[in-house]
Amino acid sequence: MYKILIADDEMIERMVLRKKLIDNFKDRCEIRVAENGREVVDKFRQFEADLLILDIEMPGMNGLEAAEAIRKMGSDCSIIFLTAFNEFDYAKKAISVHALEYLLKPCDDKELVLSVEEAMRVSILKKSSSQIESYEEGSRSQASTADAILRYIEDHYGEELSVQVMADKFAYSEVYFCRLFKQHFGESFISFLTDYRIKKAVELLKTTGMSVKEIGKKVGYEDSNYFTKVFKRVMKALPSEYRTTDQ
């Protein structure tokens, strides 16, 4: 269960924010609330949240001060600041405590949800030693997320791949994965995967004696008729026309 601690000195703001999180994430999250920075620090000692969503302007101890205190405890939890004040000093201080996001009130619901989803992904990567780390972290190298995704496609293009499968592998929501993929590759995941599979099919047609049906299966198409249809749509020709010799 992903643990979120939200803080705002306005009761209505707290209630609205909590409801938005419940509506979007349902039973994926355990949510607790605080009225000020001091209460955030006290509750964090017991709750150890994965994500803090903090208003900045709160009486006593504000959100930035609470975040600083929690960082001094050694926590690397994700932090999202919500504030009605677009002030440069606030933004600089948010950077100093390694905040994940700095959102202005009233923030767009989609922007909030995407930020929380990214915080969840970060948390999963920190806690997991699964295949995700091996592809995305790669022995703690500096490989980018785009490189990790591309390597996964290269290694698994012949398997059953979908947006859902890829999003799960890299701990994203499907919406966030699609957005990220389009940003890095300039086209949708399905379009990219189709072109990649057909490219590999062309190589096999030119260099092996495998049948069209065998090649279709090898590049991820169980139905040979569907493979032929996709191939013709992409290459404007039938698979057999790409043979270098008669098979």
UniProtKB/TrEMBL annotation:
Residues 147-245 form the HTH araC/xylS-type domain. GO terms for biological process: phosphorelay signal transduction system. PROSITE patterns: HTH_ARAC_FAMILY_2, RESPONSE_REGULATORY. Residues 3-120 form the Response regulatory domain. The keyword Transcription regulation applies. SUPFAM superfamilies: CheY-like, Homeodomain-like. Keywords: DNA-binding, Phosphoprotein, Transcription, Transcription regulation. One of its GO terms (molecular function) is sequence-specific DNA binding. It comes from the Bacteria. Coiled coil: none annotated. InterPro entries: CheY-like_superfamily, Homeodomain-like_sf, HTH_AraC, Sig_transdc_resp-reg_receiver, Tscrpt_reg_AraC-type_HTH. The modification 4-aspartylphosphate is found at D55. PANTHER family: ARAC-FAMILY TRANSCRIPTIONAL REGULATOR (PTHR43280), HTH-TYPE TRANSCRIPTIONAL ACTIVATOR RHAS (PTHR43280:SF28). May play the central regulatory role in sporulation. It may be an element of the effector pathway responsible for the activation of sporulation genes in response to nutritional stress. Spo0A may act in concert with spo0H (a sigma factor) to control the expression of some genes that are critical to the sporulation process. This is Stage 0 sporulation protein A homolog.
